[in-house]
Design a protein that fits this description.
CATH topology of one domain: Rossmann fold
CATH architecture of one domain: 3-Layer(aba) Sandwich
Helix content: 25-40%
Number of strands: 12
Radius of gyration: 18 Å
Strand content: 25-35%
Bound molecules: adenosine-5'-diphosphate, magnesium ion
Number of helices: 8
Order of helices and strands: EEEHEEHEEHHEHEHEEEHH
Length: about 250
């Protein structure tokens, strides 16, 4: 479904991704780990179509089509959803109005039915109806922002859900509800690409369900089973890189 081939990406003429290869088939679950600055967010934002990231080589294919010429909105319509590392505040736009519009446009729903569905799903992520009348993320805590991202994903049911550090800045209780909702979407058939630096969220997920890719300096240097997370946590990235000979 998603095929990233020898992808090179630059920001402001600085090369950040230096030949990334990655394949995700429908319904698969992949985790990307790696030290700070290794290019994880760059990969996520490039797949989603952020205009600041320039593809200088290689290809991104989604369901067989090259997508790197498409804008982020067209990629979203095709079923790619990115949950941001730091979800931005959008002053002046109410959550409920935004989500209603998403459901009307993406799923052709009636606005009144959409409203009811949003309130129902929001409760599962601990939002009360009155919270939905606030502006997007304005004054929200880290945990609330991440739960709101998950609410959007639950409503959209994307083909590919990319989560950039869903566990950063999140309290333990939010982390557990977020993990359950990721699993719920995965069970329903959404393919997941989950990026995490600390691997904190992985303690809440079943390692037999995902593969782990490790990034270093703009490349994916390892591809292992889910149990490998434990080894990374015990030894740290540096020791792992020395052992595998992927040290520069
Ligand atoms: P990670 O998510 O793995 O921590 P990033 O993809 O955020 O890594 O960053 C990889 C490298 O690219 C870092 O050295 C970072 O400073 C640089 N970088 C990322 N985005 C930008 C940007 N918008 N402008 C300048 N440098 C950037
Ligand atoms: Mg990042």
């Amino acid at each position: 479904m998603l095929k990233v081939e020898n992808l090179h990406v630059s920001v402001e003429n600085k090369e950040i991704l230096r030949g990334v290869d990655l394949s995700v088939e429908p319904g698969e679950f992949h985790v990307i780990m790696g030290p700070n600055g290794s290019g994880k967010s760059t990969l996520a934002l490039t797949i989603a179509g952020h205009p600041r990231y320039t593809v200088t080589g290689g290809r991104i294919l989604f369901e067989g089509d090259e997508i790197h010429e498409l804008g982020p909105d067209d990629r979203a319509k095709r079923g790619i959803f990115l949950a941001f590392q730091v979800p931005p505040e959008v002053g002046g736009v109410k959550i409920i109005e935004f989500l209603q519009q998403v459901l009307v446009e993406l799923r052709g729903m009636d606005p009144v039915k959409a409203y009811d569905l949003i309130v129902e799903k929001a409760k599962e992520l601990w939002f009360r109806e009155e919270d939905l009348h606030r502006y997007i993320n304005v004054g929200f805590s880290g945990g609330e922002r991440k739960r709101l991202e998950l609410l959007q994903a639950l409503l959209v049911e994307p083909k590919l859900l990319i989560l950039d550090e869903p566990d950063s800045g999140v309290d333990v209780d939010s982390l557990s509800v977020i993990s359950r909702k990721i699993e719920e979407l995965h069970r329903k058939g959404t393919a997941v690409l989950l990026i995490t630096h600390y691997g904190r969220i992985l303690g809440h997920l079943d390692p037999s369900t995902f593969r782990v890719h490790v990034m270093r300096s703009g490349k994916i240097v390892m591809n292992r089973g889910g149990e490998f997370v434990k080894e990374i946590e015990e030894k740290g990235f540096q020791a792992i890189f020395e052992e595998c000979g992927c040290d520069e």
